[in-house]
Amino acid sequence: MNNDYFIILPLNLVYEEKYASLSANAIILYCLFLNRTKFSMQNKNFKDEKGVFIYYSTKQMATHLRCSVNSAKKTLRELEKAALIKKEYQQNGLPIKIYVNDIRSGKCDTHFHQKEVSFDIELAEKRARELSVDWGTKKNKRRKRTESSSSF
Known about the structure:
mainly alpha; 9% strand; two-stranded antiparallel ribbon; Arc Repressor Mutant, subunit A
């Protein structure tokens, strides 16, 4: 099974009061950013003196969130306001660099000053596997139960 078929949702986004104002789209986008950060960390070309960064165009965001480009920009501002990301504009025509603040590490750097983003995808994937449930089996059992109760 390829582990890239899911994204990891840090429960801090759901349970901590300081993230209560985030929209569902902002939470999903942040999770997508974390996923992309994993690949940026493996590629040394996506690291500078400020840390690991990603490129993610607003058009891509809009496509992945199934919303308009303006809504994607609004969602991006939500994440920046919550100190979950830091945007850095480049020269005209070049994409925006996005530094993702990994809240799972417990060492959230709200200023992003020369600090590498920590990202332990292996640990997160291990936890996800430990908590996984075979939803297909449960669904089939439920379907059989429903079919048997509705048959004449």
